Structures are given as C-alpha cells and as structure tokens.
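hey so i finally got around to running both of the ones u sent me last week. sorry it took forever, my laptop kept dying halfway thru and i had to restart like 3 times lol. anyway pasting them below in the order u listed, first the sequence line then the structure token line for each. didnt double check formatting much so if smth looks off just lmk and ill redo it

first one:
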Amino acid sequence: MFPTTVAGSLPKPSWLAEPNKLWAPWRQEGDALAEAKADATLLALKLQEDAGIDIVSDGEQSRQHFVHGFLEQIDGIDFAHKVEIGIRNDRYKAMVPRVVAPLTLKGRVHATEARLARAYTQHQLKFTLPGPMTIVDTIADEHYGDRTQMAFAFADLLNQEARALQADGVDVIQFDEPAFNVYMDAVTDWGIGALHRAIEGLTCRTAVHICYGYGIKANTDWKATLGGEWRQYEAIFPALANSRIDQVSVECINSKVPIGLLKLLEGKDVLVGVIDVATDVVETPEQVADVIGEAMKYVSKERIVAGTNCGMAPMRRDIAQAKLVALGKGAALARERYG
C-alpha cells in the first residue's frame, strides 16, 4: 500500500553537470561523458533504493533536459539554428530548435540508460518521456504548420520508443505534460488523443504527469498570479478519468490545488505529490503521511502512489536526497496509520 516513486528527474552530480540549474552544461565529453552518465544513473538508483522508493527511475541523468533529451535523437529537427519562442503561453522565453522536415527517429533514444537501470535494480522501474503537447510547446514549427498534426507526429515517435522501453523491461512509462495546465481546451480537443497515440500497443502501466512546474523563478512568479486556489485541473480531470492512461501524477503538497479535485480522477491510480520541489525545506514523515491521509478522502487507498510534485533536477543534491528519505519514511508511516 502507498508505493513510492519520483516524478522523474533527480539532481545530477557536480562531476557530471553544473549543479543546481536546468539546462546544466555537461562537465565531460565523448566516452568520458557516457561513462559519467552511467555512473550517475547507478548512483541515482542506489539513492532511491536506500531512501525506500519502491518504483525507481534513472533520474534522467543522461538527459540535459526532459524534452530535449528525446528531441536530440530525431531527424527533421535543426538544433544548429535555434530561435526564441514563448513557452507555456509566453510564461517565459527560451531558445529552442526548429522542426524543418518530416520527423523520424534516428534509432533508439533511451536504450542505454533503460537497460542499465533494468540490469541493476530489482525494483519496479519507471521511465519518463515528454508528452506530445509539451514537446510542441517547446519547439518551433517551420514544417507542419499545425500544432495538432505535429503533436501526433511526435506521438508516433514516442510510441516507437515506448514500445522499445517496454521490451527493455520498463514497468511504468510516464509522459510528462506540464502544458496540460495551460491549454485546457487543447487537452480535451487533441492532447489526450495524442497521448493515446503514444501509448498504443503498450501493456505496461502508463502514466501522465501534470504539474505547475519546477521551482524556478519563472514558474514561481507565474504561480503568484494564480490566486489562492488553483482549479484549472477541474476542466481536464474528467477527460483524463475517461482516458486510457492508467495513472495520473498530480502535485498536492503546497500546490493550492484543492485536493478534493482528485475525486474527478475516479478509476485511475493517482500519483499524489507529497514532496514540494519548489522549496528547500525538507518535509517530515508526518507531513507526508498527512497529505496521503487527505488524498484518501477522495481516492481509494489502493490507488494512491506517493511521489514528488515534479522533477528535482534544479535542486541541491543533499536536499533532494533528504526529501527522498522523507518520502520513504512518510509512506511507511502512512501504512502504519491507515493500513
């Protein structure tokens, strides 16, 4: 009961990449970089296992960014001539690559790290991929001329990699869709449909992670404009409940999302965010157990998975590690209380 997991990314060691930032430059090159990525992946697994995390991930140690780590292995994208665009409905600006031709995979994207992780852990293994809508919102289109068409083109490629990850022994494949709290009409119009294309033929568990983003300044400034109650998910939870996705990952602790909205996800496993990634304050096991207890008012306890609100990539490693320990201990306490 109350298995634990992480939303995806963990901080990278300082010998692999510049610490405490997104888009962190690599500290190695060539074969040395490949070796460092492998070492960091094994370390991420060990840290999760020691903290009592049940469903572990590779910590995204081999990716500079959760979206671009996938895009780098696709033909039809020009990384050499990036342009600046507004992302998440102009919440912030970023220099992004351009789609300039039909999209095709060069080959496997995450085989190395997935197979390595599978070989070195007996735990259930989760692997994360960017969702189609979030990809489209994080790249410049100079070929398709239609966001929906481009999203489904990316969904086909995601499906190819997801099927291969399943064959590698991955137990859960999660698609990260932070754009799902920005473009509400598009979620129901084509966003969930693109996810269905991405999971076609999968028999492993599938999840979608939606959230209000990392604890970076652009996000915290935006969150300050949202008022005291964030009800945006009310518009999309019923559609997600009717979708073919098995699990929905939602930030709950300190998020201002009314936890009662979780009842709109009836029939789904809910990955309840009990660890706040926007603060360096480490939660107590009691706080973690309390959030799980609140979620139980709206989600059956058999369907609750305890996790983090979002990825931890920009955090200090020592704080992230302490939060993982709090997650493991908090879930254990919840089992004692509510088991």
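and the second one:
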Amino acid sequence: MEKKCSIRLLLLGTIVSAAFGLSTGFFAGTQKNWRTYEERIVLLQQQNADLLAQQEAAESEKKLAESLKVVDPYEYILLEENGYVAVYHADRETLFAATDILVRNLPEDLQEEISQGKQIENEEQLYNFLENYTS
C-alpha cells in the first residue's frame, strides 16, 4: 500500500511539476509577446505623430505660400472672340479693342494662352503685341 501511495505521489508531483513548467513557459512567452506588441504600438503611435506633424507643417507651408503669393497686376487680357483676338480690360467684361488678328494664324502656344486669357500688364506691352501680330 505504501508503494501505491508513493507511486501516486510521484505521479502527482510529476504532473504538477509539468503543469507548472508549462504554465510558466506559456506565461513567459505571452509576457514577451505582450512586450513586443506594446513596443509596436508605441512605434506606430510615434510614426502617426510624425506623419501628422509633417502633414500640419505642409498645410501651414501651403497657407503661408498662398498668403505670400504676389499677384502681378495686369490691365488687359487677350481672349478669343469669333476666331479673332479681342482685348478686354482686366475685368474680362469691358471690351477695350477688337482686332483683325486671327487666332488660328498665331503660334500654338500663344493660341493656348489666349484661349485661357493672356494677361497683358500695360499699354506698352499691348501695343507691342498688336504691332508684332497685325498683318
């Protein structure tokens, strides 16, 4: 009977030791994984903060650039009207002069500028343009 008790105690001790060893290993591994997980979270939070700071800096820089943008004043604008170049005041509504310059006879880059509205700063530039392209 003593042998049965001893064997039972030995088996019980082995099972308890194995269970203890396995649970310790499991919790140690879980602890290590948890630390790695926390480190990743901290790293991602730092990256997000950096990206947010970069985005805010870019937006701030864009706003500053827009506020510092100097608008070149212009008096006249050249537009196409019925295939001809028309000279308007800067408001794009008041006609200053109609010309006999055909838009299709102008260089392509100039045609594109006129289709979008070519800005002319002053009368001197306007008369130089008209003198160059009037036949």
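quick thing i noticed on the 2nd:
The mean pLDDT is 83.
anyway thats it, ttyl
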